[in-house]
Structures are given as C-alpha cells and as structure tokens.
Design goal:
By secondary structure, the protein is α/β, with parallel strands linked by helices. It has helices at about 5-10, 60-65, 85-100, 110-115, 120-130; strands at about 10-20, 30-35, 55-60, 75-80, 100-105, 130-135, 140-145, 150, 155, 175-180, 185-190. Bound molecules: iron/sulfur cluster (SF4). Iron/sulfur cluster (SF4) binds near residues 40, 44, 81, 136 and 137.
C-alpha cells in the first residue's frame, strides 16, 4: 500500500518521455532520475551523474502524469541511478502497477550486489520491478544484444511478467529513437543518443511539461 506520505515524497527527475519503444518491451513511458555514484568509462548519460537538484516532482504527480498517457503498457526507470532514489520510485512503481502497468528498471549495480546489500528501500524497488537490467556499462564488452549495452549486464525477470519479451527491444547499442514533442522539442534516447551533440537527449520537459 502507498501511504499519503509516500505519495507526497519527491523524485529528483532529469527527464521524462511519454512514449518510447526502445527502452523496454512495448510502448512505455521513460523516467530518468538525476544522480549516479558510478563512473563507467564512456558513460552515455554523463550529464545525469552529478547529484544536483533538477526537476522535483512528487510521486503522486508523476503517477498521475503516467496514468494519463494513453496506449502505454509500462514505465521504464533509468538514470542516473534509480536505486539512489529507490524509496520514491518504489512508491511510484506500486501506484502504476496497481493500474496494470509493468516496470523495467535499469541499474548500474550488479544484481548480486543489490541482493547482498539487502536494503529495505532497494528490496522495495525490486518488488515492483518486473524486469531489471543490471550492471555497469563496460565498453570493451560492448555487444549487440537486446536491452543491454555490454555483455556483463544481466536481464533479471523478477516477476516473470515480461519473460521472453526482451527480444521485442532493438539492440541497445545500435538504435537511437527520436521523439518530437508538440512544442518542437527533440528527444533522442538509446546508447548513441549520448554521442549526438546539440540535442536535448533526456527530453527535459520543464515543470510545465507535467
Ligand atoms: S551506471 Fe549508467 S549513468 Fe551511471 S556511470 Fe554507468 S553508464 Fe553512467
């Protein structure tokens, strides 16, 4: 159950995209959080690593935004590092899952590390995640597999709900998806998006975008 306090807790967002088809199976919203303690070489989201305030939104507001998007089957949490904001993200995950959506979470932490830590907030985020994409990006292990950028990264089907569907996603290293908002803002997502200059890769909507 999500308490009123949890619904009022804040998420420090770096970006949001209403609909993507390259960040998990099917059509899904994508939420990027700000801040990551890891330092993968060739990090493709380097502007999201610093722990600085970006767009602060309550869990309730973000869930309302997500549940108002027609035709999506789920939400992807990316970053930055979602496990650094595990508490509000797990509350958000619970709210949208109650309405039938599924959750994909990308993390730079290996799965065994997350399990070993056994932190209550991390366990809560695992509980609402259907498919976890876990592990740091290692450039020398770059690969052409669905949903992962380097072969050390693991796909962990935590609920089984998305089992067998990773193949619906294009090779994460090869695809860049461009979205153009009604206001003309261009968002590029996918690994190579980080290499493209002059685009607002994370689709920062500004608070009015919510
Ligand atoms: S986990 Fe992701 S955001 Fe963090 S340093 Fe690695 S590639 Fe960059």
């Amino acid at each position: 159950m999500v308490t009123a306090d949890s619904a009022r807790s804040s998420i420090n967002l770096a970006g949001f995209l209403d609909i993507s088809t390259v960040n998990g199976p099917g059509r899904r919203a994508v939420l990027w959080v700000q801040g990551c303690p890891l330092s993968c070489r060739d990090c493709f989201n380097s502007d999201l690593r610093e722990f600085v305030p970006r767009i602060s939104m309550t869990v309730g507001m973000v869930s309302e935004k997500i549940l108002g998007i027609p035709g999506i089957e789920g939400v992807t949490f990316s970053g930055g590092e979602p496990f650094c904001q595990a508490k509000p993200l797990s509350a958000l995950g619970r709210l949208v899952r109650e309405e039938g959506l599924n959750i994909v979470t990308f993390t730079g932490f290996p799965y065994h590390y997350i399990r070993k830590k056994d932190k209550p907030s991390w366990n809560s985020l695992l509980e609402v995640t259907d498919l976890l994409v876990a592990g740091p990006f290692i450039p020398r292990l770059r690969c052409s597999l669905p949903m992962v950028s380097s072969s050390n990264q693991q796909l962990v089907h935590l609920s089984g709900r998305l089992a067998g569907r990773e193949g619906e996603c294009p090779d994460a290293g090869a695809i860049t998806e461009f979205s153009i908002s009604r206001g003309g803002e261009v968002t590029a997502t996918g690994y190579r998006a980080g290499l493209l200059a002059g685009l607002n890769r994370t689709g920062l909507p500004g608070e009015e975008g919510f």
